[in-house]
Amino acid sequence: MDRISVVIENLSGPSHEPLAFAALDTATALLVAEINADGGAAELWDGTRRIARLTRHGEAGATFWEVAN
Length: 69
Hints:
5-stranded antiparallel β-sheet, 1 helix, 5 strands, globular
């Protein structure tokens, strides 16, 4: 598996362009999404194949991710 791409919806930025990061593995990709996604959703990609779509739910201190593929 190559690097995992993490694409995060940018709901708070002025341009609303998605944010993209590269991670060495899936565990690191999940940490990148957790740290950088204020709300909304993130997608994990292996090249052109989407691994999962993550949607954050809940309030501060009690959030959780819904995972779909």
